[in-house]
Amino acid sequence: MDNFTYFNPTKIHFGKGQIATLKEEIAPNSRVLLTYGGGSIKANGVYEQVLDALQGCSVVEFGGIEPNPHYETLIKAVAVAKQEQIDVILAVGGGSVIDGSKFIAAAACYDGDAWDIMTTDGDCVRRALPLGCVLTLPATGSEMNKNSVVTRAETQDKLSFGSDFVRPVFSILDPQTTYTLPPRQIANGAVDSFVHIMEQYMTYPVNAKVSDRFAESLLLNLFEDGPAALATPDDYEVRANLMWTATMALNGTLKNGVPSDWATHAIGHELTALYGLDHAQTLAIVMPALWRYKKEQKKGKLLQYAHRVLNITSGTEDEQIEQAIQKTEAFFTQMGNPTRLSDYNLSEKDIPAVQEKLTEHGMLALGEHQDITPHDAAAILKLAL
Ligand code: NZQ
Ligand code: ZN
């Protein structure tokens, strides 16, 4: 097991009716910047619950944060936060609203060019406004981690940053808020969290039993409750388990003591920035192909996954690995995210631009062995035509 440092200060309020705890978390008379997306929170009653709980506070609203939040939008919110002398940001929505709000929180306290936050991976961040979240889409884990992904639409750059200063102070997770999610977003969330687990699991064995067995249990939850959430959309228990699984998938717990990969995400972000695919769609394309490309290096963990999670016991080791990859592809496809570029009207001619963008972004040595170059990324995508 590798060395690690574990820090997670985010307080979680989980379950039915927990939006009311906003009253305890945000002091009366606070100046609150309420950030949200394209309006789902107004259609499903979350907005009213939030405003109800914020009575006594001065609330300034900033809506319109888009999926894959745009720097160009967020920078307007930064100006509002400064002008209105905001005390606390409350992000209400999915990962995009929360990620965008992390950027706003940091940029509102930064004197230089705010894009520095992205190009330095958050190293230039020294302070941030406090951030609270009401999560409405289980997927990213952003509600309980220090990461944020922001897109600069003008240049098609989708970059991420991480900083302890933008960790949410608290997050409220009421599974009932997810009932209004369209099937596509449920599916995206299940696939995204599945891949988050795998980015921290599918590397090489280091005998980190806690992280490995946590990861395996969360994968089993997703195999069960991902399809169940689509089949029985009004089942509270399914929604609740899915929501907490997605949070646990990327709140720092699984990375303790193990190497991590993250090449699938890096390649996937370029596909989203260039061609507009949903984040989870890109992951469904890249991950199975990457496993085939790196089969020898990932052999130990691929077999562990095949045996412990999928109960695959027959065939040679190579056959077991191929079965495990095919079952994973079948899961993504069942969740509405097919695994080939051609499923999204992309082809071989679209691959060189991904290679170029990875090079431009300095993504030259990806994966747990830092041996996946932009050239390898292109070869991986060719396995997913
Ligand atoms: O904008 P609104 O109207 O709220 O609609 C949203 C949006 O259209 C809708 N939605 C959210 N909750 C809903 C709802 N619709 C009905 N009922 C509800 N309860 O869903 C759509 C997608 O929302 P979005 O926030 O974009 O989805 P998600 O949570 O999957 O976030 C994706 C973003 O997170 C980044 C991705 O790259 C992408 O930009 N990631 C962030 C990570 C992190 N911070 O750790 C890690 C991830 O790997 C990921 O990269
Ligand atoms: Zn992701």
Automatic annotation (TrEMBL):
The keyword Cell division does not apply. Its EC number is 1.1.1.-. One of its GO terms (cellular component) is cytosol. Residues 9-175 form the Alcohol dehydrogenase iron-type/glycerol dehydrogenase GldA domain. Keywords: Oxidoreductase. InterPro entries: ADH_Fe/GldA, ADH_Fe_C, ADH_Fe_CS, BDH-like. Residues 187-383 form the Fe-containing alcohol dehydrogenase-like C-terminal domain. One of its GO terms (molecular function) is alcohol dehydrogenase (NADP+) activity. Its cofactor is Fe cation. Pfam families: ADH_Fe_C, Fe-ADH. It is an enzyme of class 1 (oxidoreductase). It comes from the Bacteria. The keyword ATP-binding does not apply. Belongs to the iron-containing alcohol dehydrogenase family. This is Alcohol dehydrogenase YqhD. It comes from Vibrio ruber (strain DSM 16370 / JCM 11486 / BCRC 17186 / CECT 7878 / LMG 23124 / VR1). The gene is yqhD.
